[in-house]
């Protein structure tokens, strides 16, 4: 789930409000970016919709702007001309240094944006991926969006940690061609205290969703000191062993691409000095997974 920190957000286009209510209506989604021409997050050329809001607090999150459900006003110091009087209003900022991260968009407006690249989806085998944040926090809107996209014949996918009420999860997943399902810390206590993830609910949701026949693709973030260990990966593999239709696993090695976003939001980033995994560590995990009979995709 990547997003370039210097991407300019248009706060006026297709927005309902710059300071929307805490809970948008069912036909209004709260997002913070639309990333076009993505070659990750699913097959082919894709448009990735980044939903705002996440119930989890992963220390390695590369999209910290996704955590809060509320729009956030930020100042890009590289653009700021330091007026003596600053209105604190993005619409009045002459240099574009002030901007909102996050806005509300209607279902129709979002579909109109998506369909501008329809030819690329069809010729490349691509489509739409809903990311975040956690898309399942906005299950009603995601359900409507995906249902319409499936009616239009567009390939659909979501990226999720799967930690929510199963009925909400299924209401979204039933309109997905694939669900990219993240497995993180596989110790129940650590998952709760470090990430605020309910591991038992996550595993139960995976089991239930598997029985529906929906295409599930497990993903493993490889984060030193948190998930990058043989023991943690083996717990994932042991859990997946009974699900014979699972043939492919994606690995997501840790990176530091999100550091500048924490600085932009004036938030501390505790993993700034955490090393990036080297090739031999990644290869060892890849071989461990392959020995269990899975195809391994680095990234995805």
Automatic annotation (TrEMBL):
Domain Radical SAM core: 40-295
Keywords, sorted A to Z: 4Fe-4S, Iron, Iron-sulfur, Lyase, Metal-binding, Oxidoreductase, Pyruvate, S-adenosyl-L-methionine
Signal peptide extent: none
Source organism, top-level taxon: Bacteria
The keyword Manganese is assigned to this record: no
Molecular-function GO terms, alphabetical: 4 iron, 4 sulfur cluster binding; [formate-C-acetyltransferase]-activating enzyme activity; lyase activity; metal ion binding
Cofactor(s) demanded: [4Fe-4S] cluster
Protein's name in the database: Pyruvate formate-lyase activating enzyme
Organism: [Actinobacillus] rossii
Gene behind the chain: hpdA
